[in-house]
Amino acid sequence: MVIESDLSCSGLVRRFAGHAAVDHISLDVPAGTFFSILGPSGCGKTTLLRLLAGFDRPDEGDIFIRGQRMNDVAPNKRPVNMVFQHLALFPTMTVGDNIGYGLKRKKVPAAERRRRIARVLEQVGLPGLENRNPQDLSGGQRQRVALARCLVLEPTLLLLDEPLGALDLKLREQMKIELKHLQKAFGTTFVYITHDQSEAMVMSDQVAVMRNGRFDQVAPPEVLYREPATPFVAGFVGDNNRLAGKVVSVADGLASLRLEDGSVVHGRLASEGLGPGALAELYIRPESLVFTGADSPAGFSSLNARVRATLFDGANSRVEAEHLGQPIFARLPQDGSAPGLVPDAHLPLAWDPALACVFGVGSL
Ligand SMILES: Nc1ncnc2c1ncn2[C@@H]1O[C@H](COP(=O)(O)OP(=O)(O)OP(=O)(O)O)[C@@H](O)[C@H]1O
């Protein structure tokens, strides 16, 4: 089956004063999907989005939307709309006029404009609010109007630049679920940039993790989480503990690592070409650590930590412990079955080696 791409880029480069902010990026976004670009501040997300929108031109590479080359097409001629973090609704216009602005510019007749405005308001869950003033809406409602204003134009592609960044935490949590549902309901292809891994993970079909102008990995959220391709992805997506050591053996896809205290732990080999003697790091997630008594389950790796504190946070409650002078976090069981976790108590922890990743130090 051939999946049609709404957006396809190859070898995109954008340099500023000799530094490549976007450094040979290629990507393919299938029609009707939610694609996020996730990365820390300064990694080049906005620069890439501006190239896609046409506000800036690549030094190298090509951009195709539905198979049409876009490099020389002006922003307003691209089948693309953009939603910004600081949404610029016109304060002196009603909600209806805000939404209808683009339609009017496209010379859509008034009766059809009214119909389309009413329909899109219904679709974003704000039926009948045409005559309201944007100032009289809540932050979440304003954000929905900003989306409606773009979606009413039926773009092939909607580019979203951290649109939830200005909202408070509770609203952000709610809006990320709503955005995901809206994207599916409209079937419009979304390209979303964010530095918030939880936003990217919850909403996206595919996430590109960006670092220094390049993509480290492009994959569905669950794959990023379970099989990070690089130490950066392992550290940036979700929480992870890191144990440093030296490889003592590699067999059947598992690496054994000797830690500073002489103990040997195991994890899935995640770097190519890693052999005995190499410096490596084992990544293990807090929720993959189990509390054990004297014996850990057969085949599990284990270590002895010491409790520093328990951090109660509802379903995300954790214990902070110390191992070889480094902090190590483990998720607290929800059924209250954790052992007595008083500060300084011994805390034996164990994990299934298949759930840990071992990367060579210095591997990309
Ligand atoms: N017009 C410009 N001139 C010079 N350098 C620029 C320009 N625009 C971006 N850069 C540089 O390119 C790099 C990437 O910036 P960009 O804004 O794309 O990052 P970002 O990932 O969007 O960051 P943030 O999340 O903080 O917005 C940065 O080092 C930035 O300083």
Automatic annotation (TrEMBL):
Domain ABC transporter span(s) in chain numbering: 7-237
Keyword terms, alphabetized: ATP-binding, Nucleotide-binding, Transport
Highest taxon listed in the record's lineage: Bacteria
Pfam family, one: ABC_tran
Alphabetical list of InterPro entries matching this protein: AAA+_ATPase, ABC_SmlMolc_Importer, ABC_transporter-like_ATP-bd, ABC_transporter-like_CS, Mo/tungstate-bd_C_term_dom, P-loop_NTPase, Transp-assoc_OB_typ2
GO MF annotation list: ATP binding
PANTHER family noted in UniProt: SPERMIDINE/PUTRESCINE IMPORT ATP-BINDING PROTEIN POTA, SPERMIDINE_PUTRESCINE IMPORT ATP-BINDING PROTEIN POTA
Protein name as it appears in the record: ABC transporter ATP-binding protein
Phylogenetic placement of the source organism: Bacteria, Pseudomonadati, Pseudomonadota, Gammaproteobacteria, Pseudomonadales
